[in-house]
Amino acid sequence: MEIKVPAVGESVFEALIAKWLKKSGERVSRDEPLFEIETDKVTLEVVAEGEGVLKITVPEGETVKIGTVIGTLEAGAEQPAQAQQPPAQAEAPAVPGQTPPMSPSGRKLAREMGVEPKDVKGTGRGGRLTNDDLLAARPAAPQVAQPAPAPQAAQPAPAPQAAQPAPAPRPAQAAQPAAAPAAPAAAPQAAPALPQKGADSAERIVRKPMTPIRKRIAQRLVSVRQNTAMLTTFNEADMSEVLALRQKFGDYFLKRYQVKLGFMSIFVRACCLALAEFPEVNASIEGDDIVYHNFCDIGVAVGGEKGLVVPVLRSAETMGLAEIERAIAGFADKVRTNTLALADLEGGTFTISNGGVYGSLLSTPILNPPQSGVLGMHAIQERAVVRDGQIVIRPMMNLALSYDHRIVDGKGAVGFLKKVKEFIEGPEEMLL
């Protein structure tokens, strides 16, 4: 059986073979995770469509066209015996010590969490293990595994690069100038020493090809600067009322909806109400026309291992806080397990990005074309502010709205951000 790169969307024509999950010569079962592909929009895990012994013909790191044959599953001598295993698997849930049936994404989730599937009782049809079963069996770790993106997005890569003070030894080697006055100038000259071809030059510079996702991100960022009139306006919000709301109703919310009440759902709700009053911030340009959207498809930026992705909450204006929180948690799980579909990322009329989870106090969020607005949330910081003539300490968050000045005037942008601020500082108004 030929293994081909599957089609993942009408606008996707090639994919990177990111990782083979099996090695050549290994036996593969149907529906077993086989390899991962990475396109300019999403990373996907592909499962085996049949059984057999794997033969890889295209290695990891190669970029190929959609539909390309990258390997085969060849029938082995033992395969007929294995073909009779499915009936046995159907009874597996009833036999202690055997692995119950489960989905490919469930297998990957079990591996990531260190859970042994055979030790978990499946609640699905026929004893099938569901993702909820695995999450419930996870040792004493709340399912708030969503912070996983934070360490990944913490970009360990810069640390090694920052460790490039390896040039420091260079001045000692380059301390060939005998004159003492040359010593101070030796430090600045350490930078030009980097390009020198020495025995250790290969260790000092690592060159890797850009992944399709990183290429796409780079192209879009440059395109935004060239094709929009992007400006940013700033404000700050007192988070006291929101924090009090979460403290008062957090336990009740979790007990009733089985999901935590976070900041993002409150901001999504505030933005939907503000967009209704400032429709130009929810619009886009198509040719010579401005298209106004009478719905709010809100993109929520989620940090992943391969970069930032922006899955979309469809018709968010019709969703309650619990629905929003469940949807966001679902997106985070999909990003972590590489099961995010292309349909999850398409569209969107407005975007919210929370740099505060990484500790950012102030930033300029960049537009996600063809949208005309993006809200940037930031870290909450206790600051001294004046209230009724008195200096008090309040938990404050800086807010930033980047907007396309071709559609949105300064008055509308400032008005929109002030409205969001009002809803955040008086959340009871938007919850009525």
UniProtKB/TrEMBL annotation:
Class of the enzyme per the UniProt entry, highest EC level: transferase
SUPFAM superfamilies: CoA-dependent acyltransferases, Peripheral subunit-binding domain of 2-oxo acid dehydrogenase complex, Single hybrid motif
Keyword Glycoprotein: no
Biological process, per Gene Ontology: L-lysine catabolic process to acetyl-CoA via saccharopine; tricarboxylic acid cycle
One Pfam family here: E3_binding
Coiled coil: none
Free-text remark on how the cofactor is bound: Binds 1 lipoyl cofactor covalently.
Chain positions covered by the region annotation Disordered: 77-110, 140-208
Compositionally biased residues, Low complexity: 77-97, 140-193
Protein name: Dihydrolipoyllysine-residue succinyltransferase component of 2-oxoglutarate dehydrogenase complex
Organism: Geomonas silvestris
Lineage: Bacteria, Pseudomonadati, Thermodesulfobacteriota, Desulfuromonadia, Geobacterales
Gene that encodes the chain: sucB
